[in-house]
């Protein structure tokens, strides 16, 4: 029964009781009067009838006013106080009531605020003790998470249903692909590994592991090779076992072997070319030699012809070998570990080593442009230090200049000095000297072998115009591997793991019966050219973030700008700040919406005032070829369900966030609003549970009954 209805019934009962008591008192008084007194009373009432009617009307008006005050002020204030106490108790202990209404209700609000202060302080003390108690456990958990996050290998951990519950940044980079393409699903917590890698390969590997577990094999590990976005990935799979030895998931370690396979294929082709191409020449040489051995008395003219055959075939064989070796020289040496390094850092390392080992002064001119190299910095510094020591002695110099410059796709490192030039023959001798500084050899490495290992060149030259001599080292220039943008410091360490997902059930047809706290959500927001989707306004920005297992995953976000086909209204530009110039080079909606569709797959869509955003998406279905069929929740409707006593204006996103203790950052940007909406959603879930709304079905059915659900766009 509604509070107002219950209060009206109580008030009506009191009214009837009061009228009955007054009637009974009047009846007793009338019986006690004498006939003469009764006659006199009738005369007085008859003469004063009009006055009595007016007095009765005034009394009725006063009673009606009092009734209205009781019916409106007290029940409404009581309901509001009840809702706000729930916020303090369940969501935001720092929230305080704003006393309003009659004096008694204001005093009650002030008393409750005093109680809330005490409650908040006690909550802080309890939380501090809990945090201290769980500190060690959390520390161990964070150590494991940090270790996995910083591993150089690509690692994923999945539960038995194939849901990803742990991954590291390397896996994100390795498995990144076109989100709009088949198999282009991004990596994320709670997503299915089968949307990233071929399901049949993983299933076969799991069967192998189960068989080896049944056989009690020492290392129940499986291997397979998978293709992903044009790359070949070598996967090693190992089971995750519980305390009873039962498999509860598996670990995948991935390695990109595309380059290795390509090199091996080229090496096999080279060997085939050398063997097939050399067979005929060797056969001709062998036949000529055997003929000469069989006929030792052959005349000189014939002997000369056979000798010429041997010479010609040997020359062709030598030429073929040299051509093959020059084209495929990179395949013949053993691979050597190289590291990405700024050329300026290499110059600084040379400067320090020259000063410490040789006592040479060096002036550096490295420029401001970052030049990247892939080098074995230790070997380069050591061999150059050895050569520079010999050069300083031979050319009698104690001061060296160093310059960095670009030559096409290469970086040239020039060591210059004045005075006596360097004899090129000396440089050739030094190129062959084994590295030996301070009595420590380096496996026979020489300047020539180290430079060749890097695919570089070294030479000396005389610059007559500048009056200086130079020793030049030229190395291939590279582009460093692109790293993901760092998160803001306030966001803390990215969440790449969720161990609770070991017990997460798979995606099933009973999605409606899943508790709200266990669902995976894609919380999104859009910015548009205007507020009328039916009149042709379009989306110009989509921002989204994922919520999995009750956790907001800030690093798993979607943020795209879109080039519209119609102008942006001035009113909209003032709100979101996006101008036509900012969107001129952005992709159209036909490219972005399929990518967002893949990002939001297998999740519940959530937005604030979702009818507005969903209308824009629905109007683009035919144009883009994607349809969003998953369930949708609206935090506007959920707020109305959690706080029915609040006014319409108090269900705006900013007001809800303030009430629930959510900090509003990046308002009126698509991604910023999506993050705020996601945090509001997490705060609303326990409040909805108090009102009997626990699962998705209950939330959807209750939302349909709210007044806001009738708004159309």
From TrEMBL:
The protein's enzyme class: transferase
GO terms, molecular function: 3'-5' exonuclease activity; DNA binding; DNA-directed DNA polymerase activity; kinase activity
Keyword Lipid metabolism listed: no
Biological-process GO terms, alphabetical: DNA replication
Cellular component annotations (GO), alphabetically ordered: cytosol
Organism: Pseudomonas indica
Known EC number: 2.7.7.7
Catalytic reaction annotation: DNA(n) + a 2'-deoxyribonucleoside 5'-triphosphate = DNA(n+1) + diphosphate
NCBIfam families: dnaq
Coiled coil: 105-150
Protein name from the UniProt record: DNA-directed DNA polymerase
Main function: DNA polymerase III is a complex, multichain enzyme responsible for most of the replicative synthesis in bacteria. The epsilon subunit contain the editing function and is a proofreading 3'-5' exonuclease.
Highest taxon in the source lineage: Bacteria
């Amino acid at each position: 029964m509604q509070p107002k209805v219950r209060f009206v019934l109580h008030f009506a009962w009191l009214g009837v009781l009061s009228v009955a008591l007054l009637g009974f008192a009047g009846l007793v008084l009338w019986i006690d009067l004498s006939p003469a007194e009764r006659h006199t009373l009738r005369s007085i009432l008859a003469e004063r009838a009009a006055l009595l009617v007016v007095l009765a009307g005034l009394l009725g008006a006063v009673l009606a006013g009092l009734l209205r005050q009781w019916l409106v002020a007290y029940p409404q204030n009581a309901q509001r106080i009840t809702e706000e106490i729930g916020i303090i108790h369940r969501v935001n202990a720092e929230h305080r009531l704003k006393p309003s209404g009659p004096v008694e209700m204001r005093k009650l609000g002030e008393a409750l605020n005093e109680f809330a202060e005490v409650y908040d302080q006690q909550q802080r003390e309890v939380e501090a003790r809990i945090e201290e108690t769980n500190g060690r456990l959390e520390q161990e958990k964070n150590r494991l998470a940090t270790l996995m996050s910083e591993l150089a290998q690509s690692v994923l951990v999945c539960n038995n249903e194939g849901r990803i519950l742990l991954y590291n940044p390397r896996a994100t980079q390795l498995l990144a692909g076109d989100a709009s393409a088949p198999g282009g699903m991004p990596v994320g917590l709670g997503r299915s590994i089968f949307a990233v890698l071929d399901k049949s390969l993983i299933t076969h590997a799991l069967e192998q592991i189960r068989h080896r577990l049944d056989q009690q094999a020492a290392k129940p590990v499986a291997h397979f090779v998978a293709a992903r976005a044009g790359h070949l990935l070598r996967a090693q799979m190992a089971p995750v076992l519980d305390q009873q030895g039962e498999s509860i998931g598996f670990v995948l370690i991935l390695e990109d072997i595309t380059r290795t396979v390509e090199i091996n294929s080229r090496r096999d082709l080279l060997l085939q070319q050398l063997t097939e191409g050399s067979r005929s020449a060797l056969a001709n040489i062998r036949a000529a030699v055997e003929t000469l051995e069989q006929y030792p008395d052959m005349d000189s003219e014939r002997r000369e012809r056979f000798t010429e055959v041997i010479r010609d075939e040997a020359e062709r064989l030598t030429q073929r070998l040299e051509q093959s070796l020059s084209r495929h020289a990179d395949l013949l040496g053993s691979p050597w570990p190289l590291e990405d390094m700024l050329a300026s850092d290499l110059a600084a390392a040379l400067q320090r080593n020259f000063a410490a080992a040789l006592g040479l002064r060096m002036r550096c001119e490295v420029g401001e442009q970052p030049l990247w190299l892939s080098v074995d910095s230790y070997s380069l510094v050591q061999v150059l230090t050895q050569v520079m020591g010999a050069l300083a002695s031979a050319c009698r110099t104690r001061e060296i200049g160093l310059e960095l410059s670009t030559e096409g796709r290469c970086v040239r490192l020039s060591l210059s000095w004045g005075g006596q030039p360097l004899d090129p023959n000396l440089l050739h001798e030094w190129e062959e000297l084994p590295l030996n500084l301070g009595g420590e050899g380096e496996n026979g490495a020489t300047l020539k072998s180290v430079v060749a290992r890097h695919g570089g060149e070294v030479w000396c030259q005389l610059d007559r115009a500048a009056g200086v001599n130079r020793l030049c080292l030229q190395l291939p220039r590279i582009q460093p591997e692109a790293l993901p943008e760092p998160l803001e410091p306030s966001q803390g360490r990215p969440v790449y793991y969720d161990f609770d997902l070991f017990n997460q059930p798979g995606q099933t047809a009973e999605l409606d019966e899943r508790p709200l706290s266990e669902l995976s959500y894609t919380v999104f927001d859009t910015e548009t050219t205007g507020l009328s989707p039916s009149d042709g306004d379009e989306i110009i920005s989509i921002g989204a973030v994922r919520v999995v297992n009750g956790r907001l995953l800030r690093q798993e976000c979607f943020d795209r700008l879109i080039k519209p086909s119609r102008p942006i209204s001035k009113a909209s530009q003032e709100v979101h700040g996006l101008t036509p110039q900012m969107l001129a080079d952005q992709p159209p909606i036909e490219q972005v919406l399929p990518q967002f569709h893949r990002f939001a797959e297998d999740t519940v869509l959530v937005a604030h005032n979702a009818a507005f955003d969903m209308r824009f998406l629905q109007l683009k279905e035919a144009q883009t070829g994607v349809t969003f069929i998953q369930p949708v929740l609206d935090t506007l409707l959920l707020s109305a369900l959690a706080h029915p006593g609040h006014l319409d204006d108090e269900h705006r996103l900013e007001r809800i966030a303030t009430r629930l203790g959510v900090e509003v950052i990046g308002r009126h940007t698509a991604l910023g609003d999506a993050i705020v909406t996601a945090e509001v959603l997490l705060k609303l879930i326990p409040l909805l549970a108090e009102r009997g709304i626990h699962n998705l079905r209950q939330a959807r059915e209750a939302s349909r009954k709210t007044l806001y659900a009738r708004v159309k766009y």
